[in-house]
Amino acid sequence: MEGQSSWPGGVANRPGGVANPTSADRTRTGTRAGTRTPPNRAMNSFSPADEEKLRGVRRMKLTATGLLLLVAVVYVLAKWAGNSGAGAWTGYVAAAAEAGMVGALADWFAVTALFRRPMGLPIPHTAIIPTKKDQLGVSLGEFVGENFLSQDVVRQRLRAVGIGSRLGAWLGDPEHADRVTAELATALRGALAVLRDSDVQAVVGEAINRRADAQEIAPGIGKTLEKVVADGGHRRVVDLICVRAHDWLVLHNEQVMDAVQGGAPGWTPRFVDKRVGERVYKELLRFITEMRDMPAHPARGALDRFLTDFASDLQSDTDTRARVENLKREVLGRGEVQDLIASAWSSVRQMIVSAAEDERSELRLRVRASLLSLGARMATDPKLQAKVDGWVEGAAVYVVTTYRDEITSLITDTVAGWDAEHTSRKIEAHIGRDLQFIRINGTVVGSLAGLLIYTVSRALGA
To answer: What is the pLDDT of residue 115?
Structure first.
């Protein structure tokens, strides 16, 4: 702050703002440009709200300085009028204006000395906040440690509060139970986000593989397939396949005919290959079209019989069941399937997260009911209340006795890590507007006091 002019109204009131950019200004500029603010350095950056408050301080500085200039002009005019023989009243006006200037300048000096050296002069006991910042942090830490982190203070305060009964009454309110349920849901989502997917996926994959090896799947597949065929559920799949096959043939007619011609013997004439290809394509397209449009098409009936027989073999034929088991082992042994099994955790996690987010899910409804029940018991059961109070007191005392030095050092170190100049500017942005009223009040009160003193003096002299 040294070397920076602090004439009433501050440097900020000059056109163009700060004449020489300081480290604080560079920090603020970096914040606006999008540079990342380092952790634990919140006091070293200006937020949009801080900027708005700083603009308010500047406006109040202009107001206070303008009032000082006004009384100065009044003083000059009153003196000029008095010397010109305007009358005795000019003495009263001059005395009031003169005292107002003295009060305004004195309060300007006092307010400015909090944040910087007035006019850059090395006057003792000025720039109090920048020079005493670290001592302020130490004093604040000691104050918190002595008055808030004492074991006796913590126990007395918690015992007087009666946390058990209050917590029970609070939890017994449905609105509060809903709030706690929502917070628990948020915590659950956070915990799921912390878990390492690779570890959970390995456990899930091992469990699925063990269960698949221990149970034969062919009979279950056969029963399911048998029921699907009996209910006609497979027909929609057949309809879809026929529609897609027809559309594909229409779209790729040339490729189909080229494939047929490519399989013809080399000794056949090309026009014969072409005619054969066209004929095969037309017959294939006709077959697929009829199968698509005729629910009673013979091919559909043959497919129904095949699926029925296959479902029966899956349940009763030893050879078929053995082949399915071999196929199961081969499929489970493939890397792609193992990756799919491992990724099942992602689906499970998403299901839990969805249940936690849905206010009407069974999970949240059960948690809410449990909280309401617990709250009702805590509100009426003195023994349970005493237990809860004891737990809370013990936990709080353990924290303050074990981590008291760490807590107070956090305050001290945090304040020590703040940039002195920038901290001063930030504090000024938050309280500077009110401090400018001191300057305004000093001008007004000084004027009134000067007028009163002058009046009394004249009265006694008379």
So the answer is: 82
One-letter amino acid for residue 365 of the chain: L
Residue 224 C-alpha from the chain's centroid? 48
Residues 419/44, Cβ–Cβ less than 8 Å: yes
**pTM value?**
0.40
Q: What is the pLDDT of residue 164?
A: 84
d(CA 426, CA 267): 94
- Residue 214 carries which side chain, given as an amino acid letter? A
Which of the residues in the chain have pLDDT under 70? 1-46, 197, 199, 201, 204-205, 208, 212, 261, 263-268, 273, 338, 341-343, 462
Which of 440, 422, 421, 447 is CA-nearest to residue 59?
440
The predicted pLDDT at position 197 comes to 67
- At 99 the pLDDT is 92
Residue identified by tokens 């397209």 is: 285
CA distances from 279 to 35, 60, 180, 274, 284 (A): 71, 95, 73, 9, 9
3-state secondary structure the chain: CCCCCCCCCCHHHCCCCCCCCCHHHHHHHHHHCCCCCCCCCHHHCCCHHHHHHHHHHHHHHHHHHHHHHHHHHHHHHHHHHHHCCCCCHHHHHHHHHHHHHHHHHHHHHHHHHHHCCHHHCCCCCCCHHHHCHHHHHHHHHHHHHHHCCCHHHHHHHHHHHCHHHHHHHHHCCHHHHHHHHHHHHHHHHHHHHHCCHHHHHHHHHHHHHHHHHHCCCHHHHHHHHHHHHHHCCCHHHHHHHHHHHHHHHHHCHHHHHHHHHHCCCCCCCHHHHHHHHHHHHHHHHHHHHHHHHCCCCHHHHHHHHHHHHHHHHHHHCHHHHHHHHHHHHHHHHCHHHHHHHHCHHHHHHHHHHHHHHCCCCHHHHHHHHHHHHHHHHHHHCHHHHHHHHHHHHHHHHHHHHHHHHHHHHHHHHHHHHCCHHHHHHHHHHHHHHHHHHHHHHHHHHHHHHHHHHHHHHHHHHC
Q: Measured on CA atoms in the order 375, 377, 380, 381, is the torsion positive or negative?
A: negative
pLDDT at 100: 92
CB 108 within 8 Å of CB 94 = no
Question: Quick check: 408 and 150 in contact, CB under 8 A?
Answer: no
| Separation CA 265–CA 352 (nearest Å) | 62
